[in-house]
Write a structure and sequence with these properties.
It contains six helices and no strands. It has 131 residues and is an all-alpha fold. Helix 2 crosses helix 5.
Length: 131
C-alpha cells in the first residue's frame, strides 16, 4: 500500500513538473528562438523538437523529454550563460542533442519540414539530401 502511495506521489510530481515546463516553453520558446535563430546552428532541431513535443501522436514520455530540453533552452539560468559569445549555447545544444537522440524514433520528417517552414528556410533539394 505504501509503495502505491509513493508511486502516486511521484507520478503527481512528475505531472506537475511537466505542466510547469510546458508553460515555460509555451511562453518563451518562439520568442527566444526568433531572437537567436540566425546564431544557432541547431535552430532547425529546436523547432523540430517543438513540433514533435506538440504533436498529438507523440507519446507522453517523448513529449516530457523534449519539453524538458526545450525548457532548458528557454530558461535564463544555464550551466553556460547564453550571452557568452561563441560558447553560450553549447550546453543547450548538448541537452537538445541528448533529448533528440533519446526520442529520435518519434522525430518525423514532418516535424523537420514544419520547423524549416517556421524558420523561413527552404526545403532541401534531392542533391542536398544525397550529400
Amino acid at each position: 500500500m505504501v509503495l502505491r502511495s509513493e508511486q502516486a506521489l511521484a507520478a503527481a510530481a512528475s505531472a506537475a513538473e511537466f505542466a510547469k515546463n510546458s508553460r515555460i516553453v509555451a511562453q518563451g520558446f518562439w520568442r527566444k528562438l526568433s531572437k537567436f535563430a540566425r546564431q544557432l546552428p541547431f535552430a532547425e532541431e529546436l523547432a523540430a523538437a517543438w513540433f514533435c513535443a506538440t504533436d498529438p501522436s507523440t507519446p507522453a514520455t517523448a513529449k516530457g523529454i523534449l519539453i524538458g530540453a526545450l525548457a532548458y533552452f528557454v530558461l535564463p539560468l544555464d550551466a553556460i550563460p547564453d550571452f557568452i559569445a561563441g560558447i553560450g549555447f553549447t550546453d543547450d545544444a548538448a541537452v537538445l542533442a541528448l533529448a533528440i537522440r533519446t526520442v529520435s524514433r518519434h522525430m518525423k520528417p514532418e516535424h523537420y519540414a514544419r520547423a524549416r517552414a517556421a524558420l523561413g528556410r527552404p526545403e532541401p533539394t534531392s542533391v542536398e539530401i544525397a550529400i
